[in-house]
Amino acid sequence: MIKRVAMIIGSSGLVGSCLLDELIKRQDIAEIRLLVRKPISQLPRKVHQFVTDFTALDVASDFFKVDVLYCCLGTTRKKTPNLQAYKAIDFGITMDVARRTKINGCNEVHLVSSVGANATSSNFYLRIKGETEEGLISLGFERCCIYRPSMLLGKRHESRPLERVAQRLMPIFDLLTLGGKYHSIEASSVARTMSQPVKVAGVVILEYQELRG
């Protein structure tokens, strides 16, 4: 069995934390590297973290020598009301880390995006998601997997009151979508799909039907 090194950015988020749990269980993942703003406690030996504000990543150049990169970053307009600061996180940090791993030989990248992502969208959130998708594709990874969930279900570490209200209303909305791409989905389901070994090369985009397994 070939042992691989994986990196996660956004490991404290809803999907990222579930993904970390999944990768810890995988026997073919020898090491998991995390880029975090705040240290995570009680991690197993195979997980190593580098605490950073993402402005001085040059000091950790060797940390980017990985086989696969998982991008689970995301913020909210409430936390980051400035649009340029918002883009600097969702697009800027993701692209910076992806370039660094690609230069160091990484050939596989995974991105948590959003249903409706489109680089030409009039919606700022969906436009940034679309630009990030196109940016990662342009880097030329051998395998690029993009995940487009709708409303994510699960318990977050941070408080998002409006999201909790939306989650309670989603069962009604889900009845109308009839399993379509706008159907809500558990973050753990997305993470399980992401954690599976990729067998095909090229760009793969997965939405609700492919993510629910």
List keywords for this structure.
alpha/beta, 7-stranded parallel β-sheet, 6 helices, globular, two-stranded parallel ribbon, 9 strands, 213 residues, Rossmann fold, 37% helix
What's this model, at a glance?
With 213 residues, this protein is of the alpha/beta class. 37% of the residues lie in helices and 20% in strands.
Write a structural description.
This protein has 213 residues and is α/β, with parallel strands linked by helices. It has a single domain (4-211), classed as Rossmann fold (3-Layer(aba) Sandwich). The protein has six helices and nine strands. It has helices at 14-25, 83-103, 124-138, 161-177, 187-195, 208-211, and strands at residues 4-9, 29-36, 47-51, 68-71, 108-112, 143-147, 152-153, 185-186, 202-206. The protein has a seven-stranded parallel beta sheet with strand order 3-2-1-4-5-6-9, sandwiched between helices. Strands 7-8 form a two-stranded parallel sheet. β1 (4-9), α1 and β2 (29-36) form a beta-alpha-beta unit. α1 (14-25) crosses α5 and α2 (83-103) runs parallel beside α3. The longest helix is centred in the middle third of the chain and has 21 residues, at 83-103. The chain is globular and about 40 Å long. The model has no long low-confidence stretch (mean pLDDT 89).
